[in-house]
Sequence to fold (1066 residues):
Amino acid sequence: MIYGGPSDETAPNVKRWQVGKPLPRIDAAGKAFGSTPYAGDHVMPGMLHMCIVRANIASAKLRFLDVAKARALEGVVEILTAEDLPIAEVAPGSPDRDGTERPNTGPPILAGERIRYFGEPIALIAAETRDIAERARQLVEFDLEPLAGVYDPLEAMKPGAPIVQGNDNIVAVRNIRKGDAANRLEDADYVVENTFWTPFQEHAFLEPEAGLAWTDENDVINIRVCTQDIAHFRAIADAIGVPHNKVRVRGALVGGGFGGKEDCTLEKFLAVMVRKTRCPVRLEYSREDSFVGHGKRHPLILRYKTGVGKDGKISGLDVEIVADSGAYLFLSPYVLLYAAVASSGPYRIDNLNVRARAVATNNMYTSAFRGYGSMQACAAYEQQMDEVARVLEMDPIEFRRLNYLQTGEPISTGFVPPSAIWTEQCVDRAWKAMGGPVNSTQEHIKIGRGIAAYQQSYGRLSFLGDTSEAWVGVELDGTVIVRSGVADIGAGQISALCQITAEILGVALEDVVIYSSDSAVTPLAGRTAATRTLYMTGNATKQAAEAIRARLVRRAAQEFGVAPDEIDLVEGKVLARAQPDNCMSIGALAEICETEGICRSELAMFHPQLQDFLDPETGQGQAHPDYVYGAHAAEVSVDTETGEVCVLRSIGVHDVGQCINRAAVEGQIEGGAQNGQGFALSEEMLYEEGRLVTPSLSEYLMPTSMDMPRVESIILESRSGIGPFGAKGIGEPAITPVAPAIANAIANAIGVRVFQMPITPERIVNALEERDKRRRTMTAR
Amino acid sequence: MFCDFDLHMPDRLDDALSVLTDEKGMPMAGGTNLLVDMRSRKETPASVIALGNVGELRGIHFNDERTTIGSRTTVSDLLQSTELVSSSPSLVEAAAVFAGQMVRNAATVGGNIACASPAADLVPPLLSLDAELMLVSASGSRTVPLADYYQGYKRNIRGKDELITQISWARLPENSVNMFYKLARRKGDAITIVGVAVTLSISNGICRKARIALGAVAPYVLRARESERRLEGQVISEELLCAAASQAARECCPIDDVRASATYRRHVVKALVGRLLSQSWNRLV
Fold:
């Protein structure tokens, strides 16, 4: 890869006529006009309606469960409990190639005797109407005997703590070690130590989980569901004990995923019920169900100890991370690894020691969420960078500048990312966009600014192996069909694939139709997660389209009597560049190919090279295929009397490698700004002994349009990524630096830091009072 | 979902009152609280009397002495009235930060009062304006000061056969300022942590009238009467306003909940009462 030096623009090497433009997405009109069917819109004649009976104590023994009265209700067709299920324990879907032993903590479909979290499902009801199913739920009798539970990961690690999983509640350990952090901290000019707390977060997608399942003429169980991963058909088949080819997952356009629809949600409930009743069954979560029905973002406790020289160079870093894994494992080992790998940020730190543990508690289980451990780490390391700068009495950006990881340098695991590292350009652009200082006109209002840089992976963990397939075909009228099993979760995934295809085959975006998200008939593309879809499926689609293009071009060259490199495919036409009169429609060319038996379609697979697992002792090796770099800047006002915060400016600057659809990239940056602002300031899942006490959107407070400033998106394109056309990714990166930028802005405004997110008005007032108390004590002395 | 209930949809007030006799009958105005509570089965009324078709209860009227609004007037209606901005600024300020647009379009003034939530945003302004309610039943009507309406958490003096039909208040005296501030965890669609409304009337440097109403810091919206008494008849000074603010913080009795702690709420009452009083004073001098 060749880089044009530290500029923030590199010119594309070819003229693009589709890629990079802010085109209306192919899924936009249907969503805007309300004609797009979502999973919950699908119905069938004679279908049954399901509901779930959930435990209402977090740690308990189910002493008895009696469904007789509910079953006797007119219109109730079936009620299933753990006793009725063929296989109780099902391991999580991800293949386990992480090289570590891990306890068998797969969640049962329905809890048997032991209840480990509030809301754990204990029975499934199917009835002729939703209303009857709901009435039946009221009639199910059960008795829970409370057991000692543990609701704090630090408590859960103590000897004698109630055991939720394994022998000691520690469900995953990840270490990274390089250089000699202990000694470098010993002889550093300054050592700065701080602990940061990040909270649970709820995905709160617009579309709660919904699905419809039925058995078809081949005795295949079909499940229409909103999911980020149609490949769960295998885990579902295993769970109900049928061959993999007897389950077909048919996705739909998804009304938001954010990681919350990455694990199985309601698929297994549908599967066991359709198998038992042989009737079509439908299940739709209410918002309350959704709050207790999928894993949350891991709350992390991150202790940072940074050694730094008077020259501002970081000499050593020691990080300890404790993650609350909740009652079941799910994706905790991977999330924890992401946090550990990311914990040194986009900085060159040669002496690093990271110890990370995920701990089981009786809280809601935690799993994937946009940013996946990396964003929690960023929330800590970027606040720590500001704190170290404060101790050094240096400007936070100048301090960062002395420590940026540069293109070609190794990250925490010793791996050298193959693409450009443009942290410095992104930070500088964000700060420049902020403009001159703004002063408050009111005494009790303070204004402050903050910056945060980040490193966020794109692509799946390199040692898990990853493949993605796409099929592209040209019709005889020159229109194009794409087939790929990707799940579009609202971020423009399928539209981007169409735009890539249109670019390569020289047709308009409107001329491309995509069939996606069907585990039986579209080539499997892997889950929409880990900022991998554009990189993986984008590359597969590009490969397929390029293979067809090569055949079309060869045949056209023959037709026009020129060399293949003189042929262009533009605006639905094939032409010889030097002889514009030599021209025909792509459709006509496709007709020729059809007649002569030249294949007009191609199935391509993209797969990055499988890597060994990271060294179990030192964590050194390749964790991810590549990384995205960028920054976010925020300006806030803080009311020092009430602690209220208003975000005045929010500026995201990201090197996305190459935009495929500029409007979609901006959409991600804007959404990330909102998602991260909620994490920083207002979103709070409060649990009392594991019981969720904020179970609705009137208590769990995401920022509304009233709370958001206009988000400014600055998109840099290094064209150095390993995705199609040099693209990297933006799905997760967009959220990663937002919360620490806001936290740093608040600290800058009021001169004191709140170490626990969300930074609520009350926490700000408390921090200010503590500071005043300290000052008074010092004056008294 | 909902329990079974009988639904009445009267067109006229008389018809509404004639079915509002049953103990288990529940009047519904905008339904923005009741439907949520019914859905979660906190409320299981045997019958619901939906007042949406009773047109006579909706409207805003002014005369030389008083402002009168029908109980079915929506929060959005309050924001359409330019005259209300000058006669009752705190009410308009509260309406502007009341929930979100969709709720404002449905929620009504009478409903907000009748639900008796301590966090009802329209109540502090109406208390600061000395509003009176008209309660009507099939057998008669009575007028009660809003200040006497609440008796405890979600408890009030409305008889089961009575409806609030209108709310009215006298014009503010000359040289008065009337303000409201809502503190919440976000700007849109948020339940109030502390709501403060004040009225301050000053002539010749002396406080002629003071009203301080506090939302979400007691079982019901509270007037800080002791604090008001400290101000009335006194020469206004920064120290006096400060003392009144501290007194207001002593008078409230907040609780800890998911939104904030009692300690924080008390702190904010002092800060906001002090701020609103001194802003009012600054506007009058």
Q: What stands out?
A: Chain B has eleven helices and 14 strands. The first helix of chain B runs from residue 13 to 19.
